[in-house]
Design brief:
Structural class: alpha+beta
Helix content: 25-40%
Shape: globular
CATH architecture of the largest domain: 2-Layer Sandwich
CATH class of the largest domain: Alpha Beta
Mean pLDDT: 94
Largest sheet: 7 strands, mixed
CATH topology of the largest domain: Creatine Kinase, Chain A, domain 2
Distance between the termini: 66 Å
Radius of gyration: 23 Å
Low-confidence stretches: none
CATH superfamily of the largest domain: Glutamine synthetase/guanido kinase, catalytic domain
Number of domains: 2
Length: about 475
Amino acid sequence: MPTKTAKDVLELAKSKGAVMCDLRFIDLPGVWQHTSVPIHRLDEDAFEDGFGFDGSSIRGYQPINASDMLIIPDPTTAQMDPFTKHPTLVLTCDIVDPITREPYGRDPRYIARKAEAYLKQTGLADTAFFGPEAEFFIFDEVRYGSQPNASFYEVDSVEGIWNTSADEGPNLGYKVPHKGGYFPVMPTDTLMDLRTDISQILMGLDIEVEVSHHEVATAGQCEIDFRFNSMLLCADQLMWFKYVVKNAARQAGKVATFMPKPMYDDNGSGMHCHQSLWKDGNPLFAGDGYAGLSEMGLHYIGGILKHARALTAFTNPTINSYRRLVPGYEAPVNLAYSSRNRSASIRIPTYSSSPKAKRIEARFPDSSGNPYLAFSAMLMAGLDGVQNKIDPGDPFDKDLYSLSPEELSGIPTVPGALDESLACLEEDHEFLLQGDVFTKDIIGEWISYKKDNEFDKFRLRPTPLEYELYFDI
């Protein structure tokens, strides 16, 4: 059972024989960071006083002249680490200023807390449920390099269709064809047992697994879905999910990646995000409108579609994200909504007629970013749609991939590259500032970080494909 108080946490640590406490928090780009203390340093006062650390070395945090910060453990997040050699208690933490004792404005988890508080403040709903489907690849090996005179990457998997003629001593066949990984049984699917290992570990962490399967691509693409939860808790669970997938793969002598597009000419990995609003235990998206949606549900879609191009700066925040978001390929880039139609960027699932199951599914996001920021941004866009009664327009029940250029000309699309996405965020972010959920400081820091540390570096480097295209001109 989840722990609730500092006393509960200390009793858990004692009962499990914990010798260390791992304090985890998230940096601005969305990667878990940690520092560990001997378990005797964790007492009830530590949940108020916190632990000091240098924020100047954390990406997107304080400059060196104001770097002293505090990590404050959240007792409701306590879990035992399933991978460490020595029994280790893990606590997800919030960040506060040691002088003012105020929450740190650039802490992504604090932004998610503010988004949930703003939702309640509006009176429209009291809970936002999120359910992400974070796809990933499990490879047998990865190698890459980028030097002034050389650049390459190479991934490999025993499932890879390119290995049909490889000398594997012996080669047993059963390779997964390009776009042929949905859903062959063993022996073609070589990762059944590993996905079950992952699922068992997740359930041991109170993360309820709903389904596990091979995904469309060759070379080990997988999906394991866990049950929806309230927004902040769902983001916490997604961080645990990525941690478990990566470490379970490593224990098996393999490597897992959530990179959106690790291979050319096959499906990339997305993170479809199911979302719904509830109040007083009642679902608010069920109604008698299109696909069984309420007016609120349709207006929520209207907000997502209106702000989608800006949202991609948080939901698809890497250069690699836009290798997946290409018109005519597997990812939904057209900003339209539909019932059942997976070629639309917003889908209304129809698996169940229960009002409790009524939700919308944003299909363009991937899991390369920061879930606290991505979920909060989508919630703020949806709320803007509800508050301003934004009409999502007519649904598109045709296969959008099959439409002619003329038919597609009136349908907006997501940006085609990271720099375009960041420009859209610069132009359209007022909806994020409502309730002081996002601030101009965090938006400015996000844009600057992405430009300076990712896009500008990318622009300077030639790629192997450019040699293939241009070396003999």
